[in-house]
Recover the amino acids of this structure.
């Protein structure tokens, strides 16, 4: 049996003990540091509030509100201008459908007008919102109006489906037409804000009739006076 000298072993053991001691001390130090940081975060008072001058300076550095794009208002103004250029009878049909949600048959009965005339007026109003010279948008608008008419037949609906499936651009054009129809809501509210379009067909020409009657009465009075 060979006896090994313990001098080197004692040195290695003492070295390991020293390293373990250093590790333990560093661990305790880190633990105390982390504990202090947590304690400090819980016990330190909050930052003092900003003074009025500092608050004013901070507001100058940040915008008070995000700027709103003016393109939306410009587009609505353009649509409103286009609707105002339509004849008064076309405006009335459009507003009854867009604001009061009346169908074509109800509008035709209320205004005592042919159903085809109502559909034609609706197409005129919708075409004001399409881009100029866009033939595909014009066809999509005609389909959009035609499908709302009670006269639309099953064959026409099949033809419409075939038209949609013929080209992806057709589907996109029809979707854009729906978006244009929605965009006409705000201009329609401004155009019919006083409810004039609900007064019936006779009310549209009431002003002209009143002027004509007034002129006729004035002419009769003058003739009687000179006689």
């Amino acid at each position: 049996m060979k006896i090994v000298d313990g001098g080197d072993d004692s040195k290695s053991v003492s070295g390991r003990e020293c390293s373990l001691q250093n590790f333990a001390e560093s661990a305790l130090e880190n633990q105390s540091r982390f504990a202090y940081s947590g304690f400090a975060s819980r016990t330190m008072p909050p930052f003092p509030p900003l003074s009025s001058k500092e608050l004013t300076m901070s507001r100058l550095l940040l915008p008070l509100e995000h700027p709103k794009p003016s393109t939306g208002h410009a587009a609505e103004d353009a649509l409103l201008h286009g609707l105002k250029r339509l004849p008064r009878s076309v405006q009335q049909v459009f507003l009854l459908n867009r604001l009061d949600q009346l169908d074509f048959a109800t509008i035709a009965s209320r205004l005592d007008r042919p159903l085809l005339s109502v559909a034609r007026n609706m197409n005129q109003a919708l075409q004001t919102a399409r881009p100029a010279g866009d033939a595909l948008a014009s066809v999509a608008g005609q389909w959009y109006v035609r499908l709302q008419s009670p006269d639309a037949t099953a064959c026409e609906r099949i033809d419409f489906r075939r038209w949609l499936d013929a080209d992806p651009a057709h589907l996109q054009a029809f979707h854009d037409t729906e978006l244009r129809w929605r965009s006409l809501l705000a201009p329609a509210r401004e155009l019919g804000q006083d409810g004039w379009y609900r007064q019936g067909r006779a009310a549209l020409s009431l002003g002209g009739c009143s002027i004509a009657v007034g002129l006729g009465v004035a002419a009769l009075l003058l003739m009687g006076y000179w006689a």
Q: What stands out?
A: The two ends are 163 Å apart (CA to CA).
